[in-house]
Amino acid sequence: xxxxxxxxxxxxxxxxxxxxxxxILDVSFGGGNKAxxxxxxxxxxxxxxxxxxxxxxxxxxxxxLNHVKSLKAMLKQ
Length: 77
What we know:
Mean pLDDT: 91
Strand order of the largest sheet: 1-3-2
Structural class: alpha+beta
Radius of gyration: 12 Å
Number of domains: 1
Order of helices and strands: EHEEHH
Largest sheet: 3 strands, antiparallel
Distance between the termini: 31 Å
Shape: globular
Strand content: 15-25%
Number of helices: 3
């Protein structure tokens, strides 16, 4: 495991990575309500991210939608 971190402001990607077992370490807020999710940058994370953006992943749609909603709710607290 690396000591480096991966950050994304893409809530869909954050939800996907979290569903795949990558724990969210921190959420920081920038200007204009922009949230950045922080993960440990594990070796397979880059591959998972590319698969997500290339639409080569499969997740259960309702579970994914619920996870995105949970993250949005977390941001409002």
